[in-house]
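Homework help board

Subject: predicted structure for assignment chain

Our instructor gave us this sequence and asked us to write out the predicted structure in token form, then describe one feature. I got the tokens but I'm not sure how to describe them. Can anyone check?
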Amino acid sequence: MNKVSAKVQEPVTSKGELVKYFKQHKWLYFMLIPGVLYFITFRYIPMGGIIIAFQQYSPFTGIAQSKWVGLTHFKNFFIGTDFWMLLKNTLGISILSIIFYFPAPIFLSLLLNEIKHQKYKKLVQTFIYIPHFISWVIVASLTYTLLNINDGIINQLIKAVFGHTVNFLGLPQYFRGLIVGQSIWKETGYGTIIFLAALSGVDTQLYEAARVDGAGRWRLMWHITLPAIKGTIIIMLILKVGSILNTGYEQIFLMRNSLNISTAEVFDTYIYQKGITNAQYSYSTASGLFKSVVGMIMVLGANWIAKKSGESGIY
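My token output:
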């Protein structure tokens, strides 16, 4: 077995070995084609449109004939009154999401891993996966039905106990909690898939040896289960940090209104508003490019910190 492993790990040096290697794994590379085509078509080719962030773009004159303005749109974006409001609102939601939403799938995965009855475990998994497949439109409608100030069941219960209602949907201070709460309800169950997959690779002999030494269920979880998925947790955290300015468009757009707009306006909705509604294509592209560059820097920075701390990063 060791000889086979060593042979597989040997680097491909000559052209003949390279051709032989591709022939041996041709079907694996064939399966990559749809994904590669998707990323080339919808991710890389559209990146050419970034050029309009440095132009006064007009769809009537096209990219080739549009006037170059350099960093004017970036300057207007940074010195404008909206930038700090957008940064505050976006970071507010993202930080709350990292604190409350990110650990939720991990915690739920640990609980599911403790269930020994396989049929019951599969039944629970089925039910907690279902919310992921419900559209944000339906989630927003359910939220409105439950929390609206007139006949929402939550407000009816609050009124029965405290004698008054709470405008959860209109007051800005409740907006961030609503968004994070919706994300937890909708995506926590589906988010357990990757952690349960990592847990399935834990050597059961480690648990048996620890039980022989007198370790209880909590010690098994703390000293075996969590260290086994630590690498996966770090990778997911790096990716989460990289999307710190990407709070999602659809969910927030459906939940915002004229009363909570001071908290609900984030980079994603702002870019849509400027680019599609107001037809400020160059300005909105500059705003989106800023968001993407910050995300890339955050991923690289988080990965660098993880590597310096002795952990495995994403590359």
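Reply (TA_rk): Your tokens look well-formed. For the description, you could write something like this. The beta strands are 55-56, 67-68. That's the kind of observation they're looking for.
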